[in-house]
Amino acid sequence: MTNDQALHAFGQATEQLQKALKAPAPTIERARARQAWLRFQREFRTTVTNIYGTMQDVGATAKWVTEEMPGAKERVAGLVTRQHGRSIAMLNAQFSSAYERAFELGLRTGGAVRETTENELAIVRRQRLNENTYAGNFLTDLGHGEGTMPWEKRADLYANALEEVFWQGYLYSDCSADRYIRWVEMPAVETCLDCAFLAGRLSILERPLLAKADLTPREETLLATIQARKADQGGRWGTGVYSARELATMGIVPQSGKLQCTTQCHCKLQPAKRPEGIPERTEAQEPYQSLLPKAFTGTGTNARGKVVVAREHKQVRRMGYAKRAATTEHRHIGRGETAPVKKAVAVLKVGEQKMLLTQGWVKIAQEQ
Length: 368
Known about the structure:
Layout: H1 3-21, H2 27-68, H3 73-109, H4 118-144, H5 151-160, H6 162-172, E1 180-184, H7 193-199, H8 202-211, H9 217-229, E2 241-243, H10 244-250, E3 268-272, E4 299-301, E5 307-309, H11 315-327, E6 344-350, E7 353-358, E8 362-366
Antiparallel strand pairs: 1-2, 1-3, 4-5, 6-7, 7-8
């Protein structure tokens, strides 16, 4: 046996020993964790929907009072601002505990029987702060009667965002080189370009477009994007199977805000075997970018490509939310990785916490 062969055999034996020492949870325990997650998600949805509903009631009442009694406009505006702050504080408290719990249940569903690591807590914290920006923007819409979607539906979509954290926990439960996962799309209900790309099923979206005689401008863009990206769909084998490590590096799971369908996603992750044959492509090394990226809610871009707010009220606040959303977007953080603190773009005080939002990372410091 050559030295290279000996080293290879030693590496394989070490990896198998490491996996054995992890003592993965029995199947029944994984199933119980999944059921616990579904119960927890329902409770979370009820709580946050009621917080949003209270803000909706305050905003609608404030609008009526202002129209009936113009002299009360300033006092009513103060009421809306205070309720916005209280709602942010209540949601932040919910997110703080719920996001860690969702990640833990994802870990258990994936078979891990360990505590959440420091890098995983950093991932959860970043995810929570990112969601705070969308929640704050939504509360602003509710307080001023803006937005195009019925508030109940929009609140439900924001509640769905917790499932992204669950799937992150499931993914990080075991990032061994020999763990493979399939991105499973639900074609009967899922029409998302990104999900079809990740699952290796772009042809499902392409066929009906090719059969149409006249395409709308949006459909023409969609078809052109599909045909341009067909060659690299579905991961290294083109089948929707990825190593867990690769998906973690890409920073993408079902319900992710990076997807075209965002929190309306109907996909799931399932265990898979390594596909046979030589991979067609190398393993992804960069974060996933949507094939058709969407702007932050209530914003757009002008002719020069700069972000502009498309709402009438609180434009400075909304611009801040859009910037913070971009700087706190989910990304992979490996064990032992130190995230640098760069130039701060905003300081947001919520309850008793002061959040320093930076271009590279987020630090949370309890006020003295």
